[in-house]
Amino acid sequence: MSNATSEIAPPEFPQKLGHPRPLWMLFMSEFWERFAFYGIRWAMVLYVVAKFYHGAATGEKPANELYGAYLALVYAGAIFGGYVADKIIGYQRSTLLGAVIMACGFFMISIEDPNVFKLGLATIIVGNGMFKPVISTLVGKLYAQSDVRRDSGFTIFYMGINLGAMLAPLATQQLAQTVFGTDAMPAYKMVFIAAGVGMLISLTWFWFGRKQLKGIGAPLPHQSMQRVGLVLLGGALIGIPTFYFLLTIDAKWLQAILFALFIGPAFMLLAEGVREGKVARDKVVAMLLIFAFNILFWMFFEQAGSSFNFLADKIVNRNLGGWEFPVAWFQSVNSVAIIGFAPVLAWLWVRMGKRSPSISRKFGLGLLFNGLAFLLLMVALSRLLDPGTGKIPFWTLIMVYVIQSVGELCLSPIGLSMTTKLAPPRLTGFAMGAWFLSVSIGNNLSGIFAGWVSGEGGMTVQSASAGYSFGFWALLISGGLLFLIAPLINKLMHGVK
Question: Is the pTM of the predicted complex or chain greater than 0.90?
Fold first, then answer.
């Protein structure tokens, strides 16, 4: 929407706990959407191997690559969601339609057929693209730009994301391995059905709660219901088949396509920077350099849904005094750590004041903390291996997730903010697209890397040790390099903090 429109003062809302009442409705809608999204994270690669490769370890590599491709396309698909909401059907209808499409996708992946499974993933990608970026935009529209509660409101909303992500693996694991299945034979389809139900709850919550928004995000007069039908038709005939095709091709071909998509916005941003003058050009160069390091961060960070699941299942000693810690529950550690450490780091940056690290050095810290997590795995796999069980201690993987979470907090929260500050004003949308594409490229590379860690015959101590050692050195070198060139990047930013 135009700047003039976005700067209109929001309506007067009833207050609840010091914030506009609709914030809590959006909080719960996002909670259930994230419950659905993260509820399948632990089960996806294990399910693919169990059902489509009959439990053979040779299925780990393609399962990892499929997960990486799915995650990459979720981010790539989000680029189009804002346009559909802004220009075609409005924010509220985009949220509702995205929720319906995502729910359909979650129910589809519960059908035990490899082609239907990929078709379901493609459906989730389309729905997520229409839902995820839009509901965050609605939160911003509840507050005036000058409202001092704005950052606090987004923090509360962010807690909804992490609470959903934290509780989902706990609940879906119980359904799959206690209520409807066993540890030896989990009922994975119940994980996906539960995710679909969670998405329907999110849809229902928003459907009945959207009146609280007092017209914010409501369709404009020219955005008729016919357009909703056209968007649905376009998603069914173009969006879903396209993403299905991209999920079926070799991961390296998908990587080439994502890089090609990234080059277009990058060149346009650079050309616009050159046109606007030296300062704008320098800012674009700094932004693109940060994007390159961002790709590396997500390539190694996003092992949680792929290789770390196989590590937890096969090489981590999860026996705690006769009780076995479920593989799924490791997925909740990141959210617990984010909730615990986010206020601490936020306080620390404020406390440090002018001594607070620059944007580039915060990114460098993110890479180095990520590298420390891989160093712990490298040490565990070489020196802490139990000779009797052939497994590493339980606490090591817990700490890997905690250390990675600190790295995420150093890097992820400032990415979008940095992009809006450094991009040429006329091409901020392209810059956001490039940011999401950098994350997307990193996520697809994470699947390729995870496939390499598992190897052709499935994960072993040797293959995991070799792969994670490479991850450590790659992150250490890239993080160290970013610290070394930080003064140059800061100079190119021309005072942007």
Answer: yes
Calculated CA dihedral for residues 421, 427, 428, 429, nearest 10 degrees: -170
3-state helix, strand, coil in the chain (%, to 5): 80, 0, 20
pLDDT of residue 136: 83
The two tokens of residue 179 are: 């209520």
Closest CA relative to residue 398, chosen from 340, 460, 327: 327
Q: Show me where the domains of the chain are located.
A: 18-249, 251-497
Name the strand (E) or helix (H) holding 320: strand 319-320
Please give the torsion angle defined by the CA atoms of residues 246, 249, 252 and 256, in that order, rounded to the nearest 10 degrees.
Answer: -40
pLDDT of residue 8: 67
In DSSP notation, 166-182 reads: HHHHHHHHHIIIIIS--
Contacts (Cβ under 8 Å, ≥6 apart) of 361? 482, 483, 486
CA distance 63 to 50: 10
Tally helices (H) and strands (E) across the chain: 18, 4
Q: At what angle are helices 60-83 and 114-140 packed, to 10 degrees? A: 40
Q: 18-249 belongs to which homologous superfamily? A: MFS general substrate transporter like domains (1.20.1250.20)
Q: Is 145 exposed, middle or buried (0-12, 13-18, 19+ CB in 10 A)?
A: exposed
pLDDT tens across 332-364, in order?
999 999 999 988 888 888 888 888 888 899 999
User: Which of 149, 101, 106 is CA-nearest to residue 129?
Assistant: 101
Number of CB atoms found within 10 A of residue 273's CB: 23
Q: CATH classification of 251-497, choosing from 1.10.443.10, 2.60.120.230, 1.20.1250.20, 3.30.470.20?
A: 1.20.1250.20
